[in-house]
Every structure is written in C-alpha cells, then in structure tokens.
Task: structure prediction
Amino acid sequence: MRRLLVFGAVLVTLVGSGVVASSSTTPDRHPPGGWVGTWAASPGTGVANTPNGYPNYSIRNVVHTSIGGNQARVRLSNTFGTSPLTFGHVTIAVAASNTSPAAKPGTMRTLTFGGQPSVVVPAAAEVLSDPIRLNVPRDGDLLITTYTPTPSGPVTFHAFAGQTSFFTPNGDFANQESGAAFTEQTNVWHYVSGVDVRSGAPGSVVTFGDSITDGVGSTNNANRRWPDLLSDRLRGRLGVLNAGISGNRLLLDVPGSGFGRNALARFADDVLSQGDVRSMIVLEGINDIQQTPHQTDPAMIISAYRQLIAQAKARGIKVIGATILPFKGWRVWDETLEATRVSVNQWIRTSGEFDSVIDFDRVMRDPADPQRMLPAYDAGDHLHPGDAGYQAMANAIDLSKL
Result:
C-alpha cells in the first residue's frame, strides 16, 4: 500500500505565520454569530521530502467533532509551506463511518473562499472558508477533502493523528460521495487545522500539550485521547480543541523532527487565534525534561508557564494547569530528571498562578511507587497512558472549572 511521504520528515524553519482569508471571513478570537471550534489539530511541520507538494492529489481527512451545529467553516494551513499553495477544490461531508472514505448520502458540500471554489494560500499562512450549511453531528465524524492541482512545496501536516485518513494521487475526487477513488491510506492529517460550527455552545476549551494530549498510546480510530473523553463528559456543552503535538517542548524547537514549534512560538496560532476560547488546559514540560538537551532547571520551565498564563489571561481565557505525569521506567529517567518534574509539579500545585489545577500526577501514579505510572494506566512505555489511563485523566477534570 502506498502512503503519503510524511514519516520521518524533518522540521523546517518557520518563516513567519499569519491568517489570510478572502472577503469578510477573517477569523478572530470572538467571532460573531455563535461560531465555536468543534475540532482542531495543530500543524506540526512541513514535509521536507515533498519539494513539489502533492500535485493532483485528493486527500480525505477524517476528523472527529466535539460539538454540533447547523453551519460549518474550515481552516486550512500552509503554515510550513515555502511557496503559495493552491486548493482547487475543497469539500466537507458527514462521514458514513470513521474508518471509511465514504460520505453519508446527501451531506457532501463544496466549500468556497470569498465566494470562489478555489483559493491560493501564501507561504506561512492559513485560510478560513466561507460558512456552509451542514448539520454537523456532535461526537461525530467529518470528511474534509482537499484537491491540490499544482506543485506547492513542502506540505503542512499534523504528524500523529491516531486516525486513518485517505487519499488518491489521480486527480480531483473531492466531491465523490462513495469514496471509491480513495484507495490509499495515511495516519496523518494534511492541510486541515480546524473546523468551526455555528452552535449554541458558549465557547471552547483548548487542550494545549504534547504527545500525551495528542493521544499517543490510545487505540487508533477509537477517539480515546483524553481530550476526546473530556468531550464525551461535556456532552456538547463546550467545544474541545486538541492543540497537542507529539514531542512538543515549552522552550525549544527540535531540529530534524516533526515536533512542531516550541509552545511559546505556536501559542498565538494554536490557542489565541481559535474561535471563542473560554478556557485552556496546559499539560507541557515532560519533553523539556526528558528530551536531549535536558532542561533540569525548574525555573526555566516555570518561566514558560508564566508567559502562557499572562498571554491567555490578557485575552480573557481561563488557564488550568495540569501536573506532569510520572515517567519512571522510560528510557532516560533518572533521579535528576525526576527532581525537576517534582519541583515543577509543586509549583503548579501551590503557586496560585493558574485559575485552577488538575493533578494528573496524583491520578496516574502508582501508590506503591509514586515515581512510576500505575501499570493499569500505562500504554507500556512508562511515558504514555493507554486508553484506561486517558479515561482516568478525563475523569479527573472538574467540569465546573472550564
């Protein structure tokens, strides 16, 4: 089976970021008319081994909603592109199932941009589609299909989806309801970075983090990431937007990886520019500690948290701090790294700088060995939870604080 060439891709240098859209569709943090985010994925990098992009490809991304609505609009990203990117045809549909490229009959819609069916996205920019009428289900699945007719340069993508999507390199099949042309598979989300719906929900919560928020260790195609399970508990009362990137760090980029820009660099795009965010949960820092070069000074990690708190609160967003999970047994764990984690967690619990705190450390640790994750919650590598662990994390969140 042929796959999109995204695995083992290297991180390209960020040349800037911005939001570009046609006509009156420019997004802002409190968009009018009840627009709330139902799904998001933070762009992690560009595919350096795709110098021509994906000309003549149709890519059908499968994404899972948190809230429903009667209209939708889609955000597409060329954040890591180095040249203009043309979308010749973009569609949205309700998926027949989350493991098939077929659309639910009668739900296929063509998206427009300033009234036009195609759009050119400058390098390092995003676009937001015009609104389209569609009954978007809560806790359901959508198909976002892009057709790129011409060469474009490196492709912007989210490397770990935990979800099978589909593609064909044989032309424009964006509006094909049956999905028969989409014979190839990928476990990566390409180009699409967000879906908003017109909803009665009062806003959304952004979960900002690394691979543990991204859902590494959970069952593929099952939506068992802890943000998904939080959304299940909320039952449509708030949108839940997953801004986790596997391998992401608070303070450093990681050249040669798909781990995204550091959290401070991506914060404005991945949190502040989302529609109607009312709160965010921050679970970052383990990669600063465990990746090389190791950050063993708690004050450096704390300074990054303080910046995130200040920027979010300046925009009226509540900030909920989450303690860093135990990781004894992971390949680089030692007492020095553990001491850093303990110090950072102590500050999260006691500083009073967050609006509230979720103590994931206490929830997830083994009472017999508090430096280690409870075996029943461990995906097996001693760093990432499995499905049961992610459920325990979601259950630990006080919904009244959101």
In short: Residues 1-32 have pLDDT under 50 and may be disordered. The chain has eight helices and 23 strands.
